[in-house]
Amino acid sequence: MRKDRIPGLVSIILAIAAVAALTLRQGANVDWHMQWPTWHRAPSDAAPQFASDFASSATDRFVHAASVAALPDGRLLSVWFGGSREGAGDVNIFGAFYDPAARRWGEERVLATTRGTGLALQRFVRKLGNPVVSQAPDGKLWLFYVSVSMGGWAGSALNASHSLDGGASWSAPRRLITSPFFNISTLVKGTPFYYRDGSIGLPVYHEFLGKFAELLRLDGDGNVLDKARISHGKHSLQPVIVASGPADAVALMRYAGEHPKRLLTSHTRDGGRHWQRPGKVAVANSNAAVAAVRMPNGAILGVMNDLDDGRHRLSLLVSRDDGDSWQRLTELEDSADFGGDRVPRQAYTPALQQKMLDSSSRSPSLWARYRAKLDRRVCSDSGCRFVFDYPFMIQAPDGEYHIVYSWNKSFIKHVRFNQAWVDTL
Amino acid sequence: MALELLYSTLSCGMLLFLLLPGGARLSTPQRWVALTACMMVALLPMGHGLTPTTALRGAVGDLSVITVCWLAAATAGRLLGRRPLVDGRERLAAASVVLAGALLLYPAALGLTEWDPYRLGYGPLLPAACLVAVLALAAAGYTFITAAIALALVACALRWLESPNLWDYLLDPALGTYAAVALIARCRRAAAATAASAADAGR
Fold first, then answer.
1. Closest-CA residue of chain A to B62
2. With contacts defined as CB-CB under 8 Å, which chain A residues touch B172?
3. Percentage of chain A surpassing pLDDT 70?
4. CA torsion, points B135, B138, B142, B145, in degrees to nearest 10?
5. Which residues between 45 and 84 in chain B have a beta carbon less than 8 angstroms from any beta carbon of chain A?
6. pLDDT at A268 over 90
7. What pLDDT digit, counting tens, does each position of A98-149 carry?
8. Given a cut of 90, is residue A191 above it in pLDDT?
9. Is the pLDDT reported for residue A249 higher than 80?
């Protein structure tokens, strides 16, 4: 054999061995059947219940992008990001536990920092963003969150951390590689769900050049197994996936395009491997995040800013045709008096105080600290405005529904209610 | 993490060495000293837990295996004083393969189409396509790109990097850009040479 042929031959042998190993690893059958049902039936004789509180307690932070998980012991864990402003280097991921016996939220604490994330990932990290928490059936509590090394949110990448002790301690975060272009532009917002084999379905979206939604498939250890494109182009983001069977689901997406501004939906019939082309449905969406869960009666319960513009109203809606049409059940938050416009501070302050008092029994003490800080989070020289957005909704195993959302970028508000209350609407 | 850190430190060190101003004019012993110094600089603490390696990693992520092979070939060529180590025919083949892959991958992966070629990197189809490419390129005698693709396949099988996706071992945007610039420069040089020879023939 000619000597100059040896490197080529060695390369071929190595390549054959590697492809065989990869084929064995990657070609393993992946079960695309989702866990079903996803809903929990509450006691039929329960009285209607509805309550609200603030999950966060700091009064001087910009807080946003809350999510919530129901833990096996009945507690809730809500997480969000907070700092001096959105995108600031001092933004941390915060969390607080809800004690169902005492019916109150505990002190908030830091779950992840910019510096700690950078050290764990062995790379420069400039800021943190959206976190999502989720309780897996195998007992792991997952925390997925966004970090940015360069640029704005378009430069986002995902990190995953997990807890084996109900959120008391967390593993070092690890980077999820989800894009070939410097691994930038993958963000998380929607509720994770689980497949029959224990793997995770993580709805994500991209914001660099295009705005589109994808479904990431992770194994039980958080390794990316596959991904599926839900939409493409420049107008759809923040998917929320609501199953209607082991292989059937609808993705609801925030619409970032031109008028008419309507909620986007896409359907899958094979567990999320393939998605139909997204289409607009008959409910307004002011380029704002939505949240939704399937109810035991098969209808979808949704929370969204059903407005053509602004986020000054947050409504609870129901869809009985898998997301094609929606009826508003009630308004969780409304500032219709002001129509979404900026309001002079003299009129704004008493209205805000009343909304705060209506939201939580802790409000008087919070208000005393908060009223002196009505800063750029809600006010500017041209006035102040109401912003209720970024909802996240789950149904706990006891059948109770929990919604968390940003309350004027100043607090994370928690709303809980049961099926009996929904049935009264 | 230790292997990933070693990989990214070597990548950063070689990159610093190749970008060193006046590096080509150094004597052979000085080049070895310079390379060692660049490797140490790659690990130099810059405060806040940062080093040049972690800064580079934060900015562009891990470089692909083919990029690192390219850097290693260029570094070896400079160290041995034989520039370039990989001949022009090999470089042209490598740049062409890389650019073809980049054009296939990036526009669609960034959301231009419904089809996402990046997804192929999680399944068995892309490894099989790479094996075909390895066989074809080896048969044609392109040793460098053949070995680089084979190493990328091995690295992915052993999961050297954070990514489980084969594309991340084959390509990165910096490599795609370099390949495009190299090919454009080569085309311009070829066009200029053709024009010059035509002018000579006309005299």
1. A182
2. 180, 182
3. 97
4. 50
5. 48-50, 53-55, 57-61
6. yes
7. 999 999 999 999 999 999 999 999 888 999 999 999 999 999 999 999 999 8
8. yes
9. yes
- Whether B131 contacts chain A with CB within 8 A: yes
Of A26, A123, A234, the CB nearest to B123: A26
Query: Could you read off the pLDDT of B43-71 as tens digits, one per residue?
Result: 998 877 788 998 888 888 889 999 999 99
Is some CB atom of chain A closer than 8 A to the CB atom of B135? yes
Which of A12, A18, A224 shows the shortest C-beta gap to B164?
Answer: A224
Residues of chain B neighbouring A7 (CB-CB closer than 8 A): 143, 146-147
Residues on chain B touching A234 (C-beta within 8 angstroms): 111
Contacts of A212 in chain B (CB under 8 A): 111
Q: pLDDT band at residue B82, thresholds of 50, 70 and 90? A: low
In the structure encoding, which two tokens stand for residue A100, read together? 């169902």
Whether A412 contacts A406, CB under 8 Å: yes
All residues of chain B having their beta carbon less than 8 Å from the beta carbon of residue A277 are 114
**Mean per-residue pLDDT for A226-249?**
94
Separate counts of helices (H) and strands (E) for chain B: 9, 0
Sheet holding A249-255: strands in order across? A236-243, A249-255, A262-268, A279-284
| CB contacts < 8 A (A, B) | 172
What is the tens place of the pLDDT at every residue in A332-355?
998 766 767 788 888 888 888 888
pLDDT tens track for B138-153: 999 899 999 999 999 9
Is A16 in Cβ contact with B122 (below 8 Å)?
Answer: no
Confirm if A359 and A413 have CB atoms less than 8 A apart: yes
Nearest neighbour of B58 by CB, restricted to A9, A22, A125? A125
The residue of chain B with its CA nearest to that of A8 is B138
Rounded to two decimals, the ipTM of the complex is 0.88
